[in-house]
Specification:
CATH class of the largest domain: Alpha Beta
CATH superfamily of the largest domain: Vaccinia Virus protein VP39
CATH topology of the largest domain: Rossmann fold
Order of helices and strands: HEHEHEHEHHHHHHHEHEHE
CATH architecture of the largest domain: 3-Layer(aba) Sandwich
Largest sheet: 7 strands, mixed
Helix content: 25-40%
Number of strands: 7
Distance between the termini: 44 Å
């Protein structure tokens, strides 16, 4: 299987799909979420996005009600305009990597393989993780590891990479592991390396900025009463989603009217994120860190 969809039942229920509605799957991947949405449409339409050519090659069939666009979801509004669509009834985004991306050595996403450090979701993009490691100033590397990976010894890590690349380029995972071996803790090695890879992947793909763009555009694209459902896999993503759904901004700053009432374009459907149950985690261990948040687009009379 290319990818097993996470929290599938919860996503579909949370979107409250209408047979004649227009829906967005911002992350097509293996098409699992898209297939379930499309199955519930009669006169409706589904527009799915994915920047990864491998996912586009995975499409079995497009129909009149399903259109898949090879593009980053941060450009959603532009492509909707090209399709003649101004408003939609639901948007779903599953922000995690697909199993295919993780399990394909040549993509460079997994610490399990000694592969070239690519990490580009869109392989037409220019910057690879190897280029980041070999060309970024040490201070910038430190910030990436500190902010995107929440790595406590980010300064030491960045200096080690800076010293190593003076005599040898870092191209493959094994090069990186040798360059930073003195920084890696004896206990929790895999977790530490995963944080390093996460930092590089976020930088290469500008994931947090793309997420912000998607959330901003969702406010404009959704009809009143439309649903926004987002699955995140780490605290950086989840914090952005939570703040935007609760406050309409990414900083988590309340915006109030003259009467002291909260002003926000969305109403969270659930106070806490929905997480996979034991059964789903047993069947798909990669779902363990998933958090689903759902919000409804508020109208003029209920923005409080």
């Amino acid at each position: 299987m290319y990818h097993k969809p996470v929290l599938l039942k919860e996503c579909i229920e949370g979107l409250k799909i209408k047979e004649d509605g227009i829906y967005i799957d911002a992350t097509f991947g293996g098409g699992g979420h898209s297939a379930e949405i499309a199955a519930r449409l009669k006169n409706g339409r589904l527009i799915a996005f994915d920047q990864d050519a491998d996912a586009i090659d995975n499409i079995k069939k497009e129909t009149k009600k399903v259109t898949v666009i090879h593009a980053n979801f941060r450009n959603m509004t532009r492509y909707l305009n090209e399709q003649g669509i101004t408003k939609v009834d639901g948007i779903l985004a599953d922000l995690g990597l697909s199993s295919h991306q993780i399990d394909t050595p040549g993509r460079g996403f997994s610490i399990r393989f000694d592969a070239f450090l690519d990490m580009r979701m869109n392989r037409n993009a220019q910057t690879t993780a190897a280029e980041v490691l070999n060309t970024y100033p040490v201070a910038r590397l430190q910030k990436i590891f500190s902010v995107y990976g929440e790595i406590t010894n980010a300064a030491t890590l960045a200096r080690s990479i800076g010293n190593w690349r003076q005599h040898k380029k870092i191209q493959n995972a094994s090069d990186l592991f040798l360059a930073i071996e003195n920084c890696v803790p004896r206990h929790g090695t895999n977790k530490y390396l995963a944080q390093v890879f996460q930092s590089l992947r976020i930088e290469v793909n500008q994931e947090l900025e793309a997420l912000k763009d998607l959330l901003r555009q969702s406010e404009e694209a959704l009809n009143t009463g439309g649903r926004l459902a987002v699955i995140s896999y780490h605290s950086l993503e989840d914090r952005l989603v939570k703040n935007f759904m609760r406050f309409g901004n990414f900083e988590g700053i309340p915006n109030k009217d003259i009467y002291g009432r909260d002003i926000c374009p969305f109403k969270p459907v659930t106070k806490k994120p929905i997480e996979p149950g034991d059964e789903e985690i047993a069947a798909n261990g990669r779902s363990r860190s998933a958090k689903l948040r759902i919000a409804e687009k508020a109208g003029q009379d209920n923005e409080e």
